[in-house]
């Protein structure tokens, strides 16, 4: 690889890594209990406000849950097949996706994407393990 090619690769990696801040979490819950999946809301620039919180499941490209904080009243939206078992609780520094009651089919990887008004997007990866009865 030429030095110019190497420089391009390094610049692409720097830009890609600076666009989203990543965090990894692991959660365990018994089948039939409540699971709380954390999502950090701490912005890189202080003070800043959350614009949107989007939850994704696995490699799906469409969110399973949306929280829009723009405007005077935050709005929640959940995918129809979640059977009213998923709900997002939002505080100043953290959001928690509550799943209750948990099912074995809930087990897997989740991704929480937080868009801020000024700061870079923040992504939290959460691995949920459901322990069967």
Cα distance spanning the termini = 55 Å
Biggest β-sheet description: 6 strands, mixed
The H/E string reads: HEEEEEEEEE
Q: Which sequence of strands runs across the widest sheet?
A: 1-9-8-3-4-5
- Sequence stretches where pLDDT stays below 50 over 5 or more residues: 4-19
What gyration radius follows from the Cα positions, in whole Å? 17 Å
Tell me, what is the CATH class?
Mainly Beta
Number of domains: 1
CATH T-level topology: Immunoglobulin-like
State the secondary-structure class: mainly beta
Q: Name the helicity range.
A: 10-25%
What is the name of the CATH architecture? Sandwich
Q: If you average the pLDDT, what whole number results?
A: 84
At the fourth level of CATH, the homologous superfamily is: Immunoglobulins
Shape: globular
Q: Tally the helices: what do you get?
A: 1
Q: Give the tally of β-strands.
A: 9
Strand % is over 45%
């Amino acid at each position: 690889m030429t030095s110019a090619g190497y420089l391009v690769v390094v610049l692409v990696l720097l830009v890609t890594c600076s666009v989203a801040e990543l965090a990894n979490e692991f959660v365990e819950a018994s089948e039939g209990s409540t699971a709380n999946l954390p999502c950090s809301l701490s912005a890189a620039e202080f003070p800043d406000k959350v614009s949107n919180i989007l939850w994704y499941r696995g490699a799906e490209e469409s969110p399973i849950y949306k929280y829009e904080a723009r405007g005077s009243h935050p709005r929640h939206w959940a995918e129809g097949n979640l059977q009213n078992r998923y709900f997002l609780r939002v505080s100043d520094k953290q959001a928690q996706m509550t799943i209750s009651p948990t099912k074995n089919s809930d087990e897997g990887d989740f991704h929480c994407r937080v868009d801020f008004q000024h700061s870079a997007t923040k992504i939290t990866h959460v691995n949920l393990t459901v322990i069967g009865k």
